[in-house]
Amino acid sequence: MLLASCSGRGGDRDILSKTKKTAPHRDLKEIKESGRLVALTDFSSSSYFIYKGIPMGFEYDLLERFCEHIGVDLSIEVVEDMDEIIGMLNDNQGDVIAANYTVTNQRKKDVLFTKSVLQTKQVLVQRLPEKWWTLTRDKLDQQLVKNPVGLIGKTIYVRRHSSFYTRLINLMDELGGIINVKFADGEGTEKLIEMVSEGEIEYTVADENIAILNKAYLPNIDISTSLSFTQNVAWACRISSPELLKAFNDWLAKFKKTEEFAVIHLKYFKARTKHKERVMSEYSSFKGDKISPYDEIVKNEAQRLNWDWKLLTAMIYQESRFVPDAKAWTGASGLMQLIPETAERFGADSLSGPKENIHAGVSFLISLNSYWTDRLQDSLEVIKFSLASYNVGLGHVLDAVRLTEKFNSDASQWSNVAKFLELKAQPEYYKDPVVRHGYCRGSEPVEYVKSIISLWEHYSNTSIAIKPATSSSNSAS
Q: 122-229 belongs to which homologous superfamily?
């Protein structure tokens, strides 16, 4: 996994890794105590990707619902090489595999599978002939492998430890012939499908649900030849996590019967035109190379602030959803939602364009970041205090710091100060003698900071897939 690199003070790197620590031997109890479930997945058009600043994907959406159900946050660990995913799970780098993972007897030796999340079958992916649209169905079929026996002597590329390889070995035994299986180590299923489309290889194998999604934007592939019976796609837990497995199974048994599940399934596997639009967008981390229309402006401004530009992008999304003329009831406006007084102080107003609005917002952030840099040693803590101060005002955050110190807690840690910021909604705290700015609905800035850090985590993952057609697009199976 690639994490955000934030220069901070003195060039600190990978500071987000502090939010990604996983304790050994985690089962449901430990996950709930930590407040975070870590899911191992891949960048793919079905499991997980970013679109217009929003993390999404069939399995991501399901995981979000499950985490809400058990009352924890979701953390995504993107796996670059899916052949390593079971090892990562058993090394406690994640709590669950959720990546279009097919149930096989071989895998059952190493993990516990949940109830089926989906069912699919394996299909051959081959390239349609030139000017295929001019051919009748019969003539088209004559030029394609329509029966598995036609694969004898052919070369097929698959991942070494995929279920596709196992199926091809069994298929050779059933057919009594040799299929030349080549290993595409480091390349994912969707990358191999693309290679078939471009004529770089002749054949690969894919799960039908993934193949159908890819055919929506690669119309010159044929996926009509089945190579297996129906198979179960499920999530996988460590053998040492039986309580987590039970929680998944109990939840899946109920959730799969709901309309909400049907809507999520429809969104990714049935509404193909809309899904194609998302996947092929320049703002998709799967095929595109941008997070927002303002990436270049943000990159330049982030250098002034000495922040990772993806962190600043996450903040802008949280403020305005990238809507340049967004206005709030408080009078705040623009991408960075500046109130008139602050905008004027830093050279902008409600009529300023995106560049000027971002520049003014960053100028304000620089002053806040400088204030907290002089008082805190940890660069990630500086970020959290600065974000909170931007959202609710420096005075309210300082009130919470004084309350934290008064009650003998470490005021250099945002997690401690956040608790007292939330308590400032209660009279016994906002009337305390150390409080100078009165009542504050502190849950809002606390959630604000949490949401931005979470988005930053997602945007940091896009460094794996921000370039078109990278090998990280796995679609596991």
A: Periplasmic binding protein-like II (3.40.190.10)
